[in-house]
Write a structure and sequence with these properties.
Helix 4 runs parallel beside helix 5. This protein has about 475 residues and is mainly β. It has a single domain, classed as Porin. Helix content is about 5%, strand content about 45%. The longest helix has 11 residues. The chain has a 16-stranded antiparallel β-barrel. Strands 3-4 form a two-stranded antiparallel ribbon. The chain has five helices and 20 strands.
Length: about 475
């Protein structure tokens, strides 16, 4: 992986780094509980308002210095089985199998100089490689993998998130928020207008799901922790610069976000101008039901320097060459898509529950930032370990089916390359994925403390890998160790 020099648009969020690093020696840990074990999101409890007359006031969730909100280490050892493969291409899964370890380290800092404003800085490092160089599948099997890609990102500490968060409260009801990654402990208005601006990861604010949103603690397959038909704006590592504004309330919320696209597909460098290329996202979340049901409706529109599959095929036919989507790149092209995301708590205070996702994009232009999936449907469930005397353990299983648009599969069948798929030819079929894991909550030392240990054996099987009926099936066995402060 190579290191790319930051463009001016990428440098501007880093003013926050200087402010936080100057205060690093004065970090103070909050006396609050860690994030919810299932999702990594903060535990939220409604609390009575602190009122003055009829106007609610926030009770001073401020700090003099930045706070250490959390830290994590995740190790994943994954083995890919041998598989049947009469032919292979440059981006195929290795038919002889593979075994690879990955490591990620994260340090998460926050500062609330005023009750209505916060600053967050996340530092991360990724080491290792996915099996078969993290190519050959639409639904890759290790969600902690950074794609190797053309950009060649160095495996060193980098700024993952660096953003400011502003809140305008409405109403009298407050909620208590406990310490977690990117969540400063204190009390916030349950109904508020919120703005975040800086460097972020889109799945932090869109397409969240209690049972399937964290590859470090839940499902590892890309098509189970996210909507893979949502080609969300991101560099190779999964981050970008932009803003999100939203109205948040206990029963519904509406968010809009706009972010910079990479300059090329699966590239680390971002565009320097929103006018040239950007991704727009709109999500409506509905949660008025006493059953705890949550439904999220997502729409997105990307504008970038994309190639068109049909145009690339036409050029190749006229010239007698193999189609090349990159050679057809043109400014101002679009990709549109939609998503549905639902979660349904069933028992055990929501620790047992079900989820589903559905996603669609038009599939006319090249996959640009996430993965080569144009249609996806997934569903699954989680069972709390309290049913067998292990309250904090989890057993979960889920299934995903992925598909390509007609132009996309014709392009691959003609020998064209994406950034994850190229078997040289294609006998098309839906890529189908089954994943199951058991997560053991470890207690060490014997007295429970602020550090949590989790050990998770994981199994995945994929039928028609890379949408190719001529290859597979293939199996993946993994062991994941996750430490979280």
């Amino acid at each position: 992986m190579k290191h790319n020099r930051l463009t001016p648009s990428q440098r501007w969020p880093h003013w926050l780094l200087g402010a936080l690093v100057l205060a690093a020696d004065n970090l103070c840990a909050a006396d609050a509980k860690a994030a919810d074990a299932d999702t990594g999101e903060p535990v939220v409890v409604t609390a009575p308002a602190v009122t003055s007359g009829t106007q609610a006031t926030l009770p001073g969730a401020t700090s003099t210095w930045p706070m250490l909100l959390g830290a994590q280490y995740t190790f994943i050892l994954q083995n890919q089985s041998r598989m049947y493969a009469p032919y292979s291409g440059p981006l195929s899964l290795d038919p002889n199998g593979d075994t690879q370890p990955t490591h990620t380290i994260g340090i998460y800092l926050g500062w609330a100089p005023v009750s209505w404003g916060q600053l967050d800085l996340d530092l991360e490092k990724f080491m290792g490689s996915g099996v078969s160089s993290a190519t050959g599948l639409g639904g890759l099997t290790n969600g902690d993998v950074v794609r190797e890609g053309a950009s060649g990102v160095r495996k060193q500490f980098y700024i993952a998130r660096s953003y400011a968060r502003f809140m305008l409260p409405f109403g009298d009801t407050l909620k208590t928020v406990e310490r977690a990654q990117d969540q400063i402990p204190g009390r916030e208005s349950a109904t508020r207008l919120e703005l975040k601006i800086g460097r972020m990861a889109l799945p932090d604010d869109f397409d969240q799901n209690r049972y399937a949103s964290s590859a470090r603690t839940a499902f590892m397959n890309w098509s189970l922790w996210a909507n893979t038909a949502w080609d969300y704006a991101a560099d190779t590592r999964g981050y970008t610069d932009g803003f999100v504004i939203g109205f948040i309330s206990p029963e519904w919320s509406l968010k809009y976000g706009a972010y910079l696209m990479p300059i090329l597909a699966n590239h680390q460098a971002l565009e320097s101008s929103f006018r040239r290329a950007h991704g727009q996202n709109l999500e409506l979340t509905l949660s008025p039901w006493r059953s705890g049901t949550i439904v999220r409706l997502l729409a997105y529109l990307n504008t970038a320097r994309m190639g068109d599959y049909r145009d690339a095929l036409a050029i190749a036919a006229a010239s007698g060459t193999v189609p090349n989507i990159v050679a057809d790149d043109r400014d101002g092209r679009h990709k549109r898509g939609f998503g549905l995301n639902a979660e349904q708590p069933m028992a055990d205070d929501g620790d047992t529950g079900l989820f589903l996702r559905w996603g669609w994009d038009d599939g006319k232009t090249e996959t640009f930032a996430f993965t080569e999936v144009d249609r996806v449907a997934s569903f699954g469930g989680q069972l709390a370990g309290s049913h067998w005397g292990r309250r904090d353990d989890r057993l979960a299983v889920a299934f995903a089916s992925e598909a390509l648009s007609g132009p996309h599969r014709d392009y691959l069948a003609a020998g064209g390359s994406g950034f994850l798929l190229d078997d040289g030819r294609l006998n098309y079929g839906h890529e189908q994925i089954l994943e199951a894991y058991y997560r053991v909550q470890l207690v060490w030392p014997q007295q429970p403390g602020p550090v949590r240990w989790q050990l998770s054996p994981d199994f995945q099987t994929v039928r028609d890998p890379g949408y190719n009926r001529d290859r597979g099936p293939v199996h993946f066995w993994s062991l994941r160790l996750h430490l979280e402060y």
